[in-house]
Design a protein that fits this description.
The chain is α+β, with helices and mostly antiparallel strands and 121 residues long. The chain has four helices and four strands. A hairpin with a 5-residue loop joins strand 3 and strand 4. The two termini are 28 Å apart.
């Protein structure tokens, strides 16, 4: 991993951590505002709120998470080529002890790293 990639992963990880802070606090509006411009074009705030409420209803709130893996990519399904960092966390939820959260961060058009996708398994 070269210096640029290390720097990208560090910046992407910091953006993901700040965004997960909004999720953990239950501030769905702030979490939507902090997503990438592409995410906000594709998913309305109302759609995001509904989707996240469904996940929380089933799994409960996150009780703790640890970084499992990071991966820099220049291509991800359903999005234009660019710089992406996929971050996987081993996460304990209230009703699921061994969950995995995947946060897809992307280098946004303004040069800032933002969340462009969020998946829970």
């Amino acid at each position: 991993m070269d210096h640029d990639e290390t720097s990208m992963i560090g910046d992407a990880s910091a953006a993901a951590d700040a965004w997960l802070g909004h999720i953990d606090a239950g501030d769905r509006a702030a979490s939507w505002r902090e997503t990438s411009s592409l995410f906000r074009q594709m998913v309305t705030e109302e759609q995001w709120t509904e989707a996240h409420e469904k996940v929380t209803a089933v799994l409960g709130h996150a009780l703790g998470r640890e970084m499992r893996d990071t991966e820099h990519r220049t291509s991800v399904p359903g999005a234009p080529d660019g710089h992406y960092v996929l971050l996987k966390y081993d996460t304990r939820f209230e009703r699921k002890q061994e969950g995995v959260e995947t946060v897809v961060t992307m280098l946004d058009t303004d040069g800032e790293w933002r969340v462009g996708g969020y998946f829970v398994q």
